[in-house]
């Protein structure tokens, strides 16, 4: 199931007691339509306030008991406008939205204007200083390939042994008028990795740091040397990739 959502009103994707989450809303709708509890798995959990256009979810159900288009319509009647099911399709029995995923792509939106746009408040990070995209791209080129992203990762205190080594395939900054965005793709990301990287890129674009500082911060493997992560509202989960 491919899902899009505006994360503004949700406390993240993953189920969480006593707060509203994307997963809980979807599983409640599935249980109503399919008339039984239907646990789901997603390609990548998103934090509070983060959006998605191409989130992929998998669940087990008897395909003989429903028709995909009818299920899509029924779910959207219950979930829209904040959540929209874009497609439902039958998958191979061993398919898992998370573990079968070989690549994840995110886009981060920056509204780079002297005065903020209230209509973009929940969809982009407003940065009023002019950003030098060319220098930001020079820094982005330095994260391509396999690196230890400890400096840009939020540690899970409940896990003793964690690895923050990831392989970044794409990191591209573009400007379209006042709109600036980063497209980034990797096999997987650590917690808050994209937002932390964007925070660093923007510091470089503002002229507060040099492009070469990206390599220095990476090599430090210390989160304390990286700037504050970018706010969540600019981040969108765009695409999950799978082998044919």
Strand content: 25-35%
The CATH top-level class label of the largest domain: Alpha Beta
CATH topology of the largest domain: Alpha-Beta Plaits
Secondary structure: number of strands: 10
- Mean pLDDT over the full residue set: 95
> Would you tell me the structural class of the helices and strands?
alpha+beta
Chain oligomer state: single chain
Helix content: 10-25%
CATH architecture of the largest domain: 2-Layer Sandwich
How many DSSP H or I helices?
5
Biggest sheet character: 10 strands, mixed
Compressed to H and E, one letter per element, the order equals EHEEHEEEHEEEHHE
Please indicate the count of domains. Answer: 2
From the alpha carbons, calculate the radius of gyration and give it in angstroms.
Answer: 19 Å
Low-confidence stretches: none
Overall morphology: globular
Distance between the termini: 16 Å
CATH superfamily of the largest domain: Pseudouridine synthase I, catalytic domain, C-terminal subdomain
